[in-house]
Write a structure and sequence with these properties.
The protein is built from three helices and eleven strands. It is mainly beta and 144 residues long. It has one domain: BH3618-like (Roll). Strands 3, 4, 5, 6, 7, 8, 9, 10 and 11 form a nine-stranded antiparallel beta sheet that branches. Strands 1-2 form a two-stranded antiparallel ribbon.
Length: 144
């Protein structure tokens, strides 16, 4: 199937590569099918239904090794998760400039790789924010 994308033009993708978000994403509840794309070490969550809806995402554990995600059992059940090996956790990034990138650590995107199904959940952890600097040292040095 050909999928039009915002940054990558039209790409050919097998439908079994789609990730179903049965509840959509907050603010985009009407969009249910996404692709996880990789380009030069960057990851993108591209809507299949709307070419202009694309999110830059990253593996938060690469940047925040102490990041903890406790997925509630109700969410595990909704996503059909039976083992942590089948789960990918991503965070949505807000890229204002190369020096000013923020990540949403409060609401990670949980993907069950086996069932190709995902959901963005809100953690009940006050340590995390919607706009956490990806590179805190750069954020602090440019604040002055």
């Amino acid at each position: 199937m050909k999928v039009p994308t915002r940054y990558f033009g039209e790409i050919e993708v097998e439908e079994n590569k789609f990730i179903l978000f049965p509840w959509g994403l907050p603010g985009f509840e009407n969009l249910r099918q996404f692709l996880l794309l990789e380009e030069e070490g960057f990851f993108w969550l591209q809507s299949v239904e709307e070419r202009d809806v694309i999110f830059a995402v990253c593996d938060p554990f690469l940047y925040f090794p102490n990041y903890e995600v406790d997925i509630p059992s109700s969410e595990c059940q909704a996503l059909g998760i039976v083992s942590e090996e089948e789960v990918i956790i991503l965070t949505i990034m807000n890229i204002q400039s190369p020096e000013n990138i923020k990540v949403n650590l409060l609401a990670p995107v949980i993907i069950n790789c086996r069932l190709r199904m995902g959901k963005q959940i809100i953690l009940e952890n006050e340590r995390y924010s919607l706009h956490h600097p990806l590179f805190p040292e750069k954020a602090n040095s440019s604040a002055g």
